[in-house]
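Q: Hi! New to this. If I give you a protein sequence and the SMILES for 2-acetamido-2-deoxy-beta-D-glucopyranose, can you show me the bound structure?
A: Yes, paste them in.
Q: Okay, here:
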Amino acid sequence: MNRKRFWCCIVATVMSIFLVQCIVYIYLFSTASLSFRSIKGVIESQMKIIFPFVRFSRFSNASAIFEKMKPVNLVNCRKLFDGDYIEMNKTYKLLESFKPKSISDIDYINMTKSCDSFLEKRGYIMSSLTSVEEAFPLAFSMLMYKDVYQAERLLRAIYRPQNIYCIHVDRKAARDVKDAMTSIASCFENVFIASQLYDVQWGTLSVLDADLSCIRDLLHKHKSWKYFINLTGQEFPLRTNYELVKILLTYDGANDIMGGNERFVLY
Ligand SMILES: *[C@@H]1O[C@H](CO)[C@@H](O)[C@H](O)[C@H]1NC(C)=O
Ligand SMILES: *[C@@H]1O[C@H](CO)[C@@H](O)[C@H](O)[C@H]1NC(C)=O
Ligand SMILES: *[C@@H]1O[C@H](CO)[C@@H](O)[C@H](O)[C@H]1NC(C)=O
Ligand SMILES: *[C@@H]1O[C@H](CO)[C@@H](O)[C@H](O)[C@H]1NC(C)=O
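A: Thanks. Here is the predicted structure of the protein with 2-acetamido-2-deoxy-beta-D-glucopyranose bound:
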């Protein structure tokens, strides 16, 4: 693979994956009402909320889970998107009462001692779900330095067995963070920690170093993936894997990487 191909492969994302506050709210609500009682299905139910127009027939009991999502009805997402402060304040208040219990880094290390029970308890999707997705594996990088719980939640949301995931744990990250991510990765054949770790300073070239470190590893490990998507541990998908694949198929090999000098103009 030459360098051009590198650039070719970097990306595609921006229009498909974003961190949108509102979605995080919805997600927090959904986990809150389910947490630890029925972690399984959280992903499905949350997608049901985000994509009410998508049919979820392939998820066995999503509607039953959805029934438990009552708190979501209390939030008007349209208003949140419009930046309505009253609605935001109301949502913040609600959030306080629905905070899901986090899982500590040490707990993750403990939980992943038994991978089977970890995957089951956390509700990972261990099937490609559709043949379209199976034939179109994606590669992801995830840059993170803290909050294993959130990073694991992201991984859980985007995890599919046909894809491949490179996690770049910042070199300055706490020991427990690295250990927890390493033990989580050890439960999957297609999730690994980047072989070269950088001290990433946001907005500097080190971000690219970290992504490139992952891309190099991804190219070495599997050559079958079709597109590369770079993420950070703080993001959350607005599209299902199936939707990503459908979007990327229409790209037909093209990139979605911003080229331009707006940043330089800005500063
Ligand atoms: C669906 O969920 C309901 C309520 O959570 C439960 O009682 C029922 O057994 C579930 N059905 C299946 C097929 O899992
Ligand atoms: C929202 O809450 C903040 C602080 O809690 C307050 O200063 C602000 O006035 C509130 N805004 C509205 C529109 O209620
Ligand atoms: C790990 O889990 C076991 C059993 O679930 C528990 O007894 C032990 O205290 C845990 N260890 C830590 C460090 O949390
Ligand atoms: C992904 O990489 C592109 C190109 O380096 C960059 O513009 C974008 O900000 C990156 N996205 C994330 C989430 O790091």
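A: The mean pLDDT is 81. Let me know if you'd like me to explain how to read the tokens.
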